Amino acid sequence: MMPNTPRHFLVDTDLAPAEQAEVLDLAEIMKQRRYDFQPLAGPQTGIVMFDKTSTRTRVSFAAGLTELGGSPLVINPGESQMGHKESIYDSAKVFERMVSVVIWRTYAHAGIQELADNSAIPVINALTDDYHPCQVLADLQTIREAKGTTQGLAMTYLGDAANNMANSYLLGGATAGMHVRIAGPEGFLPDDAVVATATRRAEMTGGSILVTTNAADALADADVVVTDTWISMGQEDETEMRLELFKEYSVDADAMAQAAGDAIFLHCLPAYRGYEVSPEVIDGPQSRVFDEAENRLHAQKALIAWLLYASGLAEIPADL
Ligand code: CP
Ligand code: NVA
């Protein structure tokens, strides 16, 4: 068997700006011609493995693999040997003999990096403690639909600015040429290394990065306002402290009034109404959260197909 060099998607910057644009173009086509592309017909299997709970990620990857002509094998927390009875290396060597792609939601990012480093098939990050890049692809698709482009638009994130969504907005937004503004309290801002990488990306694409503790500075005239839960999976013990700490970064009607008049609101969901977002915003006319959730399906189908094409593991359809 010829060795191949698989393309993985672990961090938003694993796609160069032109490659991210190709995936988003393909996502638009996948949405319009939903059942036309079957690069996994054969049939082939994709593993969708979870160490944390999920609704959207689980359903969108399972449905997406089916629509691409393959079969999803969903492995729930605690159901495989990997990580407790068996090493990541041995698991990677087994998976690549049997399936076409591995999608994994886990805690430490180092684990998925190790899996990918030892895998001859594409590995996709379905959320780690540090990044949630598939979510940001769906967000970018939603922004394109609402605004026609991502280039040059200002996207403001308020809240827990040290979490996986904040990091992925920085890196994915900068890759898409956006002006990404991140606001959260001191001590809960993104790591310098992530900000430096995002800044370098923004210099390539004409975007920019602002990290601040001042919500008003971040919100002024924003085209897109986003937030996320203040208590990510695994942080439940810190609930009381977090609810107090982040409350001035809630996206309510006052916050939306500081953004552009035609700004849209996004949230990866699950959302906690009355905490990071008020009901009048998430259930109001500027909210696009259910388009965003639907786009997980289309963006991830496009991503899987693109990674298979780029890895030389599937043929690009002639009519694409
Ligand atoms: N947004 C998101 O990833 O949702 P789930 O945790 O339900 O998969
Ligand atoms: N930051 C959240 C995202 C959930 C989709 C978490 O990690 O729990």
From TrEMBL:
GO CC terms, sorted: cytoplasm
Subcellular compartments: Cytoplasm
Principal location listed in the UniProt entry: cytoplasm
GO biological process, one term: L-arginine biosynthetic process via ornithine
Reaction(s) the record says it catalyses: carbamoyl phosphate + L-ornithine = L-citrulline + phosphate + H(+)
Domain Aspartate/ornithine carbamoyltransferase Asp/Orn-binding residue range list: 151-307
Enzyme class: transferase
Identification of the protein by name: Ornithine carbamoyltransferase
Species of provenance: Enteractinococcus coprophilus
